[in-house]
């Protein structure tokens, strides 16, 4: 039997010699052009990084192609970023241009650096998840097809981080993104009373509801759901498979804006609701693509240099954000969860729009 | 002719996503489908989802490898009649090399193993950072794991366990790393193998390590225990390099000092010198981000430790909050690991099922958490003191009646 508990391979064995030598001794870096970084060590030694986008969902053949490229230009060393980009690491200046040319000829987008729209962090969607309210790879592909020029340039006021999660479980943790694309359900789970008693633990199911909408029903040995209290989070379905809530006509996408995780300038922020609902419209989700593009381009037009989406909105105010983007403000934008009152305006200071 | 071609395709919806400038996941799926019937059925099932606007995976399923309680996510099609190739289609989470560094040799080995045992499809990488091997049958799980283990790879975390810790690129290729994020992450991963592979907690527990406040792995939003590099002491200024940035077109006032959140910096336009009131600096990184060649962090390096970050399920999203403003982090990181163990024990003892540690702290109160863990309350932990008068006192705070 194979050994267990060996842990991951030691990262030290996977680093190119220039990194081994300059580990912890880098002095500064420059972005030479979109997708190309130069890091300089204290001794003056240099490492170049060429960054390229990936679809995240990759075949082994695609990975082998990436390996071939890395062997040709980078002595077989590469890394991936936390946003699914590929980084080719090299020391020979003369190889940079040929590498970029080869990447471009093979249709790899080169970019994802500085003030750009970088790759979208996303989840599994219909490809491999059992709770999705939308697909993940499809909407991401459709949005990036539309925004790809902002990946390979640096014309944004600041970094734009877009993330997609296909349900509220948010294994993609999109809740602190400049733009979050979030799959949502809008209808109450339909208990399968014949299965609930056999496959679900009733107390756990009842306790799983954040709004206390689920009650045990001793008669049926199943549960009932208070439709007025349910906000379709799907947590009960996660613990009880007999409470399905997927609904092809009513599931869809919501768009959230203005979050960030970096502490630079302003503190990390949650994303806030911009568009409560857009339909699932495969294969290209045109409504979602248009909404994201509108927000990105309105931000690019109006924000000051170095202002992240949330910093821009905080400066101009939400009332102006809704006017500039043309997004309709509705009762769905006004919070009614436990933290709601923190978001109500407690001052007479506001703008007319 | 064109219509005929279209009619031939089994996947007209997905074919549409082969078009466009961005790399297409459909191309990758088709590549795998040429070799593997299960990848072909995955493609066909996904097409049905596109047509019907609904997923076709059954709920969960417990599968695994010998000795482990996690690392494999069971997945079964709800239409095995139509797509027998994905009747079982389980995911294996493989713990990525820290910092996502690879040699092509290692990557090729992974590809060979996955072609032998699974669909040939992967995610590089999953949300927690793992290498995701997407789809294999139950009978291949153990043999695939055996091959992975022989090649030096191990599974990652899943379920109510320590999830695979992750770290930013850190000192490997970043001048801003105040801590050795890679080594800390690797050390924690190796030290807590048992907690990672054998789910025994109330719910999931995530640890992420960022070298500086830019927080490239989103530890403050995405981890229950966030380790973020910081410093004490003066920001080191190289005035010549500041001037070089200014000469090259950087507007030091508009782009640096005016954007400083604490206004602790002044730029003397005439003398071309930058001054920083370091005591007022909150180490946000903006000025250093802007002028990496001119500004370097203070010399005393360490980390701020924060707790409780999570996505909305169940009680709402939380950002991690400060519990240790500054801890020096040098190998073997014993103080750090002791603290993590103490917190895990406390959570394990008091947490309800599916209650993340941040939610537990909200339920029992931060004062209880701090007292039980033995952390001294300091102002760095709060944005402001409480505004309500509903103050609890400990019995020992109260004078006993003397009879």
Summarize the structure in words.
- Chain A is an alpha+beta fold and 353 residues long.
- Helix content of chain A is 26%, strand content 18%.
- Chain A has 10 helices and 12 strands.
- Chain A has helices at residues 17-22, 60-73, 96-105, 137-151, 196-199, 202-207, 235-239, 286-302, 309-316, 318-325, and strands at residues 26-33, 36-41, 46-52, 57-59, 77-80, 86-90, 162-165, 179-184, 214-217, 222-225, 252-257, 272-279.
- In chain A, the strands form 3 sheets. Chain A has a 5-stranded antiparallel sheet. A 4-stranded mixed sheet of chain A has the order 7-8-11-12, with helices on one face. Chain A has a two-stranded antiparallel sheet with strand order 9-10.
- In chain A, strand 2 and strand 3 form a beta hairpin.
- In chain A, 52% of the residues are buried.
- In chain B, helix 3 (25-35) crosses helix 4 (37-52) and helix 5 (104-117) packs antiparallel against helix 6.
- Chain B is an alpha+beta fold.
- Chain B starts with a helix and ends in a 30-residue tail after the last helix.
- The longest helix of chain B has 17 residues, at 334-350.
- Chain B has helices spanning 2-8, 12-16, 25-35, 37-52, 104-117, 141-150, 181-191, 193-197, 219-222, 239-247, 252-256, 286-290, 334-350, 357-364, 366-373, and strands at residues 72-73, 90-94, 101-103, 121-124, 131-136, 166-167, 207-210, 225-232, 236-237, 265-268, 273-276, 295-296, 300-307, 321-327.
- The radius of gyration of chain B is 26 Å and the shape is globular.
- In chain B, the strands form 4 sheets. A 5-stranded mixed sheet of chain B has the order 6-7-8-13-14. A 4-stranded antiparallel sheet of chain B has the order 1-2-5-4.
- The mean pLDDT of chain B is 96.
- Chains A and B meet through strand 1, strand 4, helix 2, strand 5 and helix 4 of A and helix 2, helix 3, helix 4, strand 3 and helix 5 of B.
- Strand 5 (77-80) of chain A pairs antiparallel with strand 3 (101-103) of chain B, so a sheet runs across the interface.
């Amino acid at each position: 039997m194979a050994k267990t508990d060996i842990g991951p391979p030691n990262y030290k064995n996977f680093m190119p010699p220039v990194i081994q030598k300059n580990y912890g001794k880098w002095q500064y870096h420059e972005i030479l052009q979109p997708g190309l970084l130069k890091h300089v060590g204290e001794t003056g030694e240099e490492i170049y990084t060429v960054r390229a986008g990936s679809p995240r969902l990759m075949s082994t053949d695609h990975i082998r192609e990436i390996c071939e490229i890395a062997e040709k230009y980078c002595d077989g060393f590469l890394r991936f970023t936390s946003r699914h980009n590929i980084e080719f690491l090299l020391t020979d200046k003369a190889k940079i241009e040929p590498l970029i040319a080869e990447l471009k000829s093979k249709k790899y987008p080169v970019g994802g650096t500085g003030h750009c729209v970088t790759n979208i962090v996303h989840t599994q969607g219909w490809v491999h998840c059992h709770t999705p309210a939308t697909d993940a790879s499809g909407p991401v592909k459709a949005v990036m097809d539309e925004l790809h020029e902002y990946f390979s340039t640096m014309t944004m006021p600041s970094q734009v981080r877009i993330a997609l999660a296909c349900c509220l479980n948010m294994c993609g943790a999109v809740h602190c993104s400049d733009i979050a694309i979030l799959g949502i359900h809008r209808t109450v789970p339909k208990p399968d009373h014949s299965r609930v008693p056999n496959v679900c633990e009733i107390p756990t199911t009842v306790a799983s509801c954040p709004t206390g909408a689920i009650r045990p029903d001793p008669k049926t040995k199943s549960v009932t759901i208070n439709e007025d209290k349910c906000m379709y989070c799907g947590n009960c379905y996660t613990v009880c498979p007999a409470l399905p809530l997927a609904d092809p006509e009513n599931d869809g996408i919501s768009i959230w804006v203005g979050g960030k995780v970096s502490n630079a300038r302003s503190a990390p922020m949650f994303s806030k609701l911009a568009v409560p609902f857009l339909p699932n419209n495969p294969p290209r989700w045109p409504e979602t693509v248009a909404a994201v593009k509108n927000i990105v381009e309105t931000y690019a037009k109006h924000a000051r240099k170095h202002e992240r989406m949330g910093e821009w909105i905080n400066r101009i105010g939400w009332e102006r954000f809704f006017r500039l983007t043309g997004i309709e403000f509705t009762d769905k934008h006004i919070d009614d969860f436990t933290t709601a009152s923190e978001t109500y305006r407690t001052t007479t200071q506001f703008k007319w729009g | 002719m064109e219509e005929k071609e279209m009619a031939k395709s089994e996947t007209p919806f997905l074919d549409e996503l082969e078009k466009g400038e961005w790399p297409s996941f459909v191309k990758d799926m088709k590549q795998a489908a040429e070799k593997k019937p299960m990848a072909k059925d995955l493609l066909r099932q996904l097409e049905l989802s596109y047509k019907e606007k609904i997923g076709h995976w059954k709920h969960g399923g417990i599968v695994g490898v010998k000795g482990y309680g996690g690392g494999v996510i069971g997945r079964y099609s709800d239409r095995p009649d139509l797509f027998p190739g994905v009747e079982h289609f389980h995911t294996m989470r493989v713990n990525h090399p820290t910092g996502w560094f690879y040699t092509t040799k290692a990557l090729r080995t992974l590809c060979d193993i996955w072609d032998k045992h699974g669909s040939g499809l992967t995610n590089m990488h999953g949300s927690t950072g793992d290498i995701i091997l997407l789809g294999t049958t139950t009978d291949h799980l153990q043999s695939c794991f055996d091959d992975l283990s022989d090649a030096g790879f191990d599974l990652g975390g899943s379920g109510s366990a320590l999830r695979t810790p992750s770290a930013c690129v850190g000192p490997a290729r970043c001048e801003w790393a105040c801590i050795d994020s890679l080594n800390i992450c690797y050390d924690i991963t190796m030290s807590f193998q048992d907690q990672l592979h054998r789910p025994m907690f109330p719910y999931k527990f995530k640890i992420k390590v960022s070298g500086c406040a830019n927080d490239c792995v989103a530890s403050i939003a995405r981890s229950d225990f966030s380790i973020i590099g910081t410093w004490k002491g003066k920001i080191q200024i190289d005035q010549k390099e500041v001037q070089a940035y200014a000469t090259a077109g950087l507007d030091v006032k508009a782009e640096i000092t005016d954007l400083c959140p604490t206004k602790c910096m002044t730029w003397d336009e005439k003398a071309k010198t930058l001054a920083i009131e370091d005591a007022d600096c909150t180490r946000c990184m903006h000025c250093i981000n802007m002028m990496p060649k001119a500004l370097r962090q203070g010399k005393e390096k360490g980390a701020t430790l924060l707790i409780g970050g999570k996505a909305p399920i169940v009680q709402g999203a939380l950002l991690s909050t400060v519990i240790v403003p500054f801890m020096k982090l040098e190998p073997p990181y014993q103080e750090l690991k002791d603290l993590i163990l103490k917190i895990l024990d406390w959570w394990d003892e008091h947490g309800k099922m599916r209650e993340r540690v941040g939610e537990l702290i909200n339920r029992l109160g931060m004062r209880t958490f701090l007292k039980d863990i033995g952390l001294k309350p300091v102002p760095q932990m709060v944005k402001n003191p409480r505004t309500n008068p509903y103050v609890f006192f400990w019995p020992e705070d109260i004078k006993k009646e003397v009879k």
